[in-house]
Amino acid sequence: MNKKKILFNAIVAALMAFAIFVTNALCLELAAGEELKEATGCTFVLNSEFVPAGVKGYYVNKYRPMESSSVSYNVHDNSADSMLTNREKAEIASGEKSIDSLGKLDKHKYEALVSEGYKAQYGADVGFKVESFDHIEIDGYPGYKIVAKYEPEGSQVVHQTVYIIRSKYRTFTITYQRAADDDCEESFNISASTIRVH
Questions:
Q1: 15 by DSSP, 3-state: which?
Q2: Each residue's pLDDT tens digit, 106-115
Q3: For the segment 84-114, what is each residue's pLDDT rounded down to a tens digit?
Q4: In Å, how far are 31, 78, 90, 116 from 35, measured between CA atoms?
Q5: Is the CB of residue 57 less than 8 Å from the CB of residue 49?
Q6: Could you report how far apart the first and last alpha carbons of the chain are, in Å?
Q7: CA nearest to 155, candidates 88, 42, 50, 65
């Protein structure tokens, strides 16, 4: 199996695991009293070179495995997480329990969480590093733009840009991922400029 195909398979596995990880580990609960607008959906435009990969919300370059770039889109329903039992409310009030809020996410927390997720998936440290972590706002909804990279063993560097957009009942995550030699950075930037929340 050639190196490009190995890289493509690694990126596919990593992006699928990443989407699940973000949903489970980051989109936890709304902080008590946090005021966010409701949103019904999030849209963005992809270059026609990206086609559905057979998994909901996951798109790959149609020239795979020669082009290993991919995009994933995930929607997390926050509503179940924001409902607390009386016991949970009492634990929070007493300081016995704290709720991890996506609104309090920072570069260091994100890097540690995602590093652990990739380490569990690959069985080794992949050198996941956050290069930039910016607070953003799209159509009045707060979120983050996170640029990172990692390098699975036997592969080349993988570049990842993640947009996490928060609303009252839904969190939207769009992940653009490419190998160092994939020629799609401009295409990803154009796609990201079309992100809309409604």
A1: helix
A2: 999 999 988 8
A3: 556 655 554 544 443 446 778 899 999 998 8
A4: 9, 13, 21, 30
A5: no
A6: 44
A7: 65
The SS3 of residue 67 is coil
The amino acid at 61: N
125 contacts 117 by C-beta, under 8 angstroms: no
Residue where the block lists tokens 């995009």:
71
| Number of CB atoms found within 10 A of residue 47's CB | 16
Letter for the amino acid at 131?
E
144 forms beta bridges with 135, 164
Which H or E run includes 118? helix 107-122
The closest alpha carbon to 22, from 138, 148, 195, belongs to 148
Measured CA to CA, the distance from residue 121 to residue 116 in angstroms comes to 9
Residue 66 burial (CB < 10 Å; 0-12/13-18/19+)?
exposed
Measured between alpha carbons, how far is residue 9 from residues 13, 33, 153, 177 in Å?
6, 43, 13, 13
In single-letter form, the type of residue at position 76 comes to H
